[in-house]
Design a protein that fits this description.
Strand order of the largest sheet: 1-2
Strand content: 5-15%
Pfam families: Prefoldin_2
Helix content: over 70%
Organism: Funneliformis mosseae
Structural class: mainly alpha
Keywords: Chaperone, Cytoplasm
GO molecular function: unfolded protein binding
Shape: flat
GO cellular component, one term: prefoldin complex
Length: 133
């Protein structure tokens, strides 16, 4: 009976990981579509227009261009946060899955590494790229 519960826990973790990966793909597609929309709003023919047509679900609505642009930018930041959160969750669940399968996390030690930020790099090297140009 204990063996079945262990296998079901492994299956649940693996299913969560796959679901989160698919959500990241879906959110990334939406983010790319938003980026395309922002680029189209910046193009020359639309610069003179004050209102643009927007597809909101099943409706086409004519809205102020500035409102549409700010809405898309807010959506982009929300998608970035959600994707980042999902990636962190995937890392955590993958580590959890390996730990439950093998009892250790030897293969996943470097999996939780994070990139260095620009300010940390500046603090380490003492070189500011803006002033070197």
């Amino acid at each position: 009976m204990e063996y079945i519960s262990i296998l079901s826990e492994h299956e649940r973790l693996a299913e969560d990981i796959l679901t989160n990966k698919q959500l990241i793909i879906d959110y990334d597609r939406t983010r790319n579509t938003n980026r395309e929309a922002l680029n189209i709003l910046k193009k020359e023919p639309l610069k003179s227009q004050k209102k643009v047509w927007v597809n909101l679900g099943e409706f086409f609505i004519k809205l102020e261009k500035d409102n549409v642009k700010s809405y898309i930018e807010k959506d982009q930041t929300n998608l970035e946060k959600e994707i980042s959160s999902l990636r962190d969750t995937i890392k955590q669940k993958t580590t959890e899955l390996e730990k439950s399968e093998t009892g250790e996390i030897s293969k996943m030690k470097g999996f939780e590494l994070q990139g260095i930020s620009a300010s940390d790099l500046y603090n380490i090297t003492g070189v500011n790229k803006e002033f070197d140009e």
